[in-house]
Amino acid sequence: MNGNIGMRALSMLLAVLLVSMGVVPAVSAENESRGWLDTFDRWVEPRDMSMYNPVIETPQRVPITEEIARQHPGVIILDPKRVSEFQVIDADMVPVSPGKVSLTLQTESGDPGTRDLMPDVRMTQGTISWYWTQDTFVYHEITIHNYASSAASGMVILWSLKDGYGCGVPFSDLAAGADLTVTVPFEVLPQHSSIGIKPMAVEIRVDPTGLTSWMARMPIDAVEKYNNDASHLLDPDGGENLETSDLYHFPFSEGYRVLLEAAQAADGTTEPYQSAYAITQYVNGAMNYTYEDPYLEYIFSDLYMMDHPSPINGKYLGVCDEYGTLYTAFARALGIPTRFLSFSMREVATGNVSGHAIAESWNGTTWVHSDPTWNVFDNPQVYRTAGNDHINITVYGDADDSYYTQDPNDPTGDGILRYEDFRTQILLGEVPRYN
């Protein structure tokens, strides 16, 4: 970050003296002051501090059993040997509401059904939910057609192929040539599922033998997230740490891709702590640190990074605040309350003051530190280990690209924000667990 070095040095010295006395320096509006950005000369550089990470346990989901399935009406266990039998079906997909997509199947080409089967019942349309919340019911509407010459009865099943179970709804006396739309309430069982990507499949079985009349994997995968109600992973700040903004676009404001990559980052995890650790590692590997001036002066949204990857290796670009932004977007998208933090710290050996951006995620009982730039997790003392002190922290909340309008080089809506575009700034000061 460039500027008048003499004035910066003086402001840093004053900031350090004030911080040491427990006083937070006031933000001046004179001379186009950048506030917090004026308290340091440079962002921290990337480091691999993963050797200081605690040992992270990796609990696995508990496979569902027949006894457990009987406790949940409609739940059916999938034979794992059958998973590979479900082939993706062609369909026209149209979003119809947040988290739902309408499918119209191309039944005349490549159809895996069995037209010579009597009876012959197939799926033709559906409204599929691709966003699942743990410990809830997710409703899917499946339209079926009886291609046979006599009435048919049977069951429509929606499967979660990764979790190894599905939920079925019976149908009866479907007349020849008739259509029927059934609603399948899929029960998301958190003890027997995991966070992440959920390939879905539909199967139609017909009476009297329960023979499969039609089966296919859906052309869109679902995503499972944590439940944020009072009995589960409640945000201690009333939902503020789960909100979207002009920096974080999920799950519906800009469609599917932020949520899908978040699910990829934490795929297969079963606890918020474990998920946050997985996202930290993923973001660290998905980004390249850049020293380009725009990234040093501004903060870039998740979608901007996705739309402007490195032309060399396809990774996302940014400095530590972009690392923190992407982490925050992914964690919030999966229902993990997460807050974005920036701080200044003094290097003890030289007296230089640098700026850094990280995040903290709520695990249900406490805030857990995450630093994807340094690939370090749950170790807020790592900055002292690296030879720094006076770690002075600010929490940055809601961001609105149209909030600060005095910069002619920062048009509204481009995904490039100034720190002045943060509507909420909470000064925490020298938090003991970091100092």
From TrEMBL:
Show the Pfam families listed in the entry: Transglut_core
Q: Which residues form the Transglutaminase-like domain?
A: 312-374
What Gene3D superfamilies does this protein map onto?
Answer: 3.10.620.30
**Entry superkingdom:** Archaea
What is the name of this protein? Answer: Transglutaminase-like domain-containing protein
Origin species, per record, is Methanoculleus bourgensis (strain ATCC 43281 / DSM 3045 / OCM 15 / MS2)
